[in-house]
């Protein structure tokens, strides 16, 4: 009896695993040699003997094909290289976060300038910035003031930004998403 709970067992069994050597279930397999050339369609027992004579493993590459395609290779080395490729892919990945700056229809000039500095800092860091104008109570009747705030932000930032999401109302807030414009290097 295993020490794993049912949920953990389900997670483990649902992971797609590459079959190797005696785990292969087909009677006949199409065998590809280490050099990449086709050996031919062989019964499983012969294919396993062929791989063993080469001193490597028989790995099922394409289980859905008819007959399944198996390759003669060093399985440990294959898994290691696959892991390295995945690691390299994660290194090159860049995460873009969505930062939010909240304004009010009556935000004063000094606060406005401070919030603009924050927006610039977020955009320079490579993140996107969600500019929100929050309305309270009777301010909802004056949505045009919120639009003026967003237009003012766009006028001041000008060519530094592009609009990812145009201004829209969501409940008592008006939102707009900004992203930085890629600057071309001059040679």
From TrEMBL:
Residues of the Translation initiation factor 3 C-terminal domain: 96-179
The record's GO CC annotations read: cytosol; membrane
Q: Where is the Translation initiation factor 3 N-terminal domain?
A: 21-88
One Gene Ontology MF term: ribosome binding
Q: Does the keyword Protein biosynthesis apply?
A: yes
Its localization reads: Cytoplasm
First-listed, main subcellular location of the protein, grouped into a coarse class: cytoplasm
Its domain of life reads: Bacteria
Q: Which UniProt keywords apply?
A: Cytoplasm, Initiation factor, Protein biosynthesis
Q: Which InterPro entries match?
A: T_IF-3_C_sf, T_IF-3_N_sf, Translation_initiation_fac3_CS, Translation_initiation_fac_3, Translation_initiation_fac_3_C, Translation_initiation_fac_3_N
Q: Does the keyword Plastid apply?
A: no
- Example GO BP: ribosome disassembly
HAMAP family from the xrefs?
IF_3 (MF_00080)
Question: What role does it play?
Answer: IF-3 binds to the 30S ribosomal subunit and shifts the equilibrium between 70S ribosomes and their 50S and 30S subunits in favor of the free subunits, thus enhancing the availability of 30S subunits on which protein synthesis initiation begins.
Supply the NCBIfam families for this chain: infC (TIGR00168)
Outline the subunit composition.
Monomer.
UniProt similarity note: Belongs to the IF-3 family.
Q: What is this protein called?
A: Translation initiation factor IF-3
């Amino acid at each position: 009896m295993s020490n794993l709970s049912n949920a953990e067992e389900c997670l483990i069994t649902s992971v797609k695993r590459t079959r190797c050597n005696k785990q292969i279930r087909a009677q006949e397999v199409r065998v590809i040699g280490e050099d990449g050339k086709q050996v031919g369609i062989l019964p499983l027992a012969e294919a396993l003997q062929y791989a063993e004579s080469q001193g490597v493993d028989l790995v099922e590459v394409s289980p859905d094909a008819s007959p399944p395609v198996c390759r003669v290779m060093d399985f440990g080395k294959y898994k290691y290289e696959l892991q390295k490729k995945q690691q390299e892919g994660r290194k090159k990945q860049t995460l873009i976060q969505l930062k939010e700056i909240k304004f009010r229809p009556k935000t004063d000039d000094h606060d406005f300038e401070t919030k603009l500095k924050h927006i610039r800092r977020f955009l320079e860091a490579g993140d996107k910035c969600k500019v929100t104008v929050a309305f309270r109570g009777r301010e909802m009747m004056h949505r045009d003031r919120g639009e003026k705030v967003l237009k003012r932000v766009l006028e001041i930032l000008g060519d530094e930004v592009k609009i990812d999401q145009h201004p829209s109302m969501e409940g008592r807030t008006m939102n707009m998403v900004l992203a930085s414009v890629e600057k071309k290097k001059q040679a």
